[in-house]
Every structure is written in C-alpha cells, then in structure tokens.
Specification:
Distance between the termini: 26 Å
Number of helices: 7
Strand order of the largest sheet: 1-2-3-4
Largest sheet: 4 strands, parallel
CATH class: Alpha Beta
Oligomer: single chain
Number of strands: 4
Mean pLDDT: 95
Strand content: 5-15%
CATH topology: TIM Barrel
Radius of gyration: 15 Å
Low-confidence stretches: none
Helix content: 25-40%
CATH superfamily: Metal-dependent hydrolases
Length: 153
C-alpha cells in the first residue's frame, strides 16, 4: 500500500501515539516504528499525527532524519508542558518547519487548536526558559503545510 501511494504521489497521514482504544497495542504507536516505511519508500510523504505523543522526541529525530516525514501538532495543546517541550525539541533539532497544523476534529475545532498554539508560552511565563517565537507559531498554523503539500499551496 505504501509503495503504491509513493508511486502515485499520494501523501499519507499515520496516526501514531497514544490511543484510548484498549485493544490497540501501544508497542506499535511509537513513531520510530515508521522508520522501516520511510527507508523502503523514501519518496513517500508521511505526516505523523500528534507528534507521536507521548513520544514527541522520537518523532522529532525521525522527521529530522527523513526528508519526506512531517508531523502535525493537533491535540498537543491539551498538555501545556509537553506541548512546549515538543516544540522546543523541534526547534533545537532544526525541524520546526516540518510541524504542520491539524485540528483533531471532532475532539477540537480548528479555532480551539489555533488558540492553543498561541498559548504555548504561557507555561514558561515569568521564568528564564526560552519562548517559542511567534513566527514559528504562525508558520506552523499557516505556512509549513505548503512544503508538505506543494501542489495545493
């Protein structure tokens, strides 16, 4: 299936990360499990859902290594500290341009997720921790998808 999508130029979204479905084994939910696909299908564009929560760092190193892997940021704003840490990891690894917006509808509307992105620095307000730049937040919401889906930009 992945090779066919690659040959047709069809991007895929893969839900990685935690799940409330009791019968869904978490051992397959870590984004690192996608590396075999990324190696076998290097031209396949893949977006990893939820930054692979709670394995955001694994997702970050994976998207850094593979040019056609991206991740979306929906549902992260529900957990403010993890949200901040995930974005900071992406910045430190130089892949913040590979974070793209998603709403996680019907769990959240686009407006709710956008509002959540703008609150990311609230968790570090009044501290010496660095903040996520407004330009980075803007690009995640409005610009970064254009690299993943240039045919629609």
């Amino acid at each position: 299936m992945f090779r066919k999508a690659e040959s047709l130029g069809i991007p895929v979204n893969i839900h990685q990360g935690t799940s409330f479905v009791r019968t869904g084994p978490l051992k397959y939910a870590n984004p690192i499990e996608l590396e075999d696909i990324a190696v076998a299908c290097p031209d396949l564009r893949i977006v990893i859902s939820h930054m692979g929560h709670p394995w955001e760092d694994e997702c970050v190193v994976l998207i850094r290594k593979h040019p056609n892997l991206y991740t979306n940021v929906y549902a992260l704003h529900y957990r403010p500290l993890r949200h901040y840490q995930a974005f900071m990891s992406a910045i430190e690894y130089g892949v913040e341009h590979k974070l793209i917006f998603g709403s996680d509808f019907p769990s959240a509307t686009a407006a709710q997720v956008i509002a959540g992105q703008h609150k990311i620095n609230d968790i570090v307000a009044g501290t010496n921790f660095p903040t996520i730049p407004n330009e980075t937040i803007h690009n995640i919401i409005y610009e970064n998808w254009k690299t993943f889906l240039p045919e629609y930009a």
